[in-house]
Amino acid sequence: xxxxxYKVLEEEExxxxxxxxxxxxxxxHVVACCCDCEDLDDACDRRxxxxxxxxxxxxxxxxxxxxxxxxxxxxxxLSHVAEVFTDRIRVPWLWGGxxxxxxxxxxxxxxxxxxxxLAAFHFLLGMAILIALPGLVLWxxxxxxxxKGQTLFFLSLALFSLAYMYYLFITxxxxxxxxxxxxxxxxxxxxxxxxxxxxxxxxxxxIVRPNKExxxxxxxxxxxxxxxxxxxxxxxxxVTMTVANRVGWSEHAxxxxxxxxxxNWCPVCRVVRPPRAGHCRICGVCVLRLDHHCVWINSCxxxxxxxxxxxxxxxxxxxxxxxxxxxxxxxCPNQHLLTALLYCPGVYDQYSSALCFTCAWYSGIVTCxxxxxxxxxxxxxxxxxxxxxxxxxxxxxTARRAYWxxxxxxxxxxxxxxxxxxEFMTMGEKLNPPFPVPTELVALLEVDVQExxxxx
Length: 456
Prior knowledge:
Radius of gyration: 27 Å
Oligomer: single chain
Number of strands: 14
């Protein structure tokens, strides 16, 4: 009989560099990744006979047995196999045991260099690849966005694109002798500042926390919560019970939330959200002044990191435009800078020049996409509207659109151009602004929360 109970490690037990706690809360070792394939057998829903020694052989034998019997594959079988497989891909780490490797970071590391080098062989091949590459990225974006799941694919693509373009600039453009040390220093400083701004943006968007004055008690339970990762803390999660929480969970209480509280109440995070805050279904948290979830940084953009997000875009665009101009001046010295991307005769006669020209085109495509994002962000800040608010207002037909949809004015929070930018530049990083709890929520019945979780 398969064990499904969570086994939480004692605090005094420490993990060596090759040990880790798997998705069931059990202690495991990286060497055991090819052993104990019961999870894969159950995921493929076949009767276990002899234990498999290799993951791939188990998966193939399980699926083949179903194909041989002409039995339909269950839709969840592949997802269960993927969960087991990704949980066992670990790298040894000195602190805290082996770390999990997200497989979504690997495709950009392989596909980007291969596609760019193939595109450098001929201009027709380059046109086909540079047209198909954005389409492939957009398809993967809509595929993952529909599943509402986090992925490191886009962050890996962004970081690797920046690093790989800089590497090619050093190895292919700099030896040509057309770039001075001062220009190289400007590009290097731009890359470093972009990464620093990105790290600051990744520090967090500003998560809505329960009001300390409304905290009633703290409960520890061992079952996964909706929209949360069940592997956190080995299956254990601590939930802070607030006055509003207990109303949300109490089925016997005769007190109902006010209309305003119901509108701002988050049933997932169990908190009353302050104005302009929103719940992100991808991150599973409520964010102060939520603008949108950006897949390129794998994080939400909110009150705390919105300014650093815009700074990251500006630094990247300036660095990218300057780098593209240097590359075009080097590989197309006889052409005007504005027309070099469209007409550069003889650039495909030498492979290194063709590779630099192809990378300039790729960087130009990325720059155009991020420039559009920056323009939309600047317009939204000028009208004091977030991307989330604009989307809701357009859905409810309560906003005014102009300039092909670039301008969306809700007219709710706008204080004029100068006032909107002053508010944006000075909005504080206080994570919990005061938000009154309705007095009606104080009269509550005693509810046994632990029994509630057992029943669930």
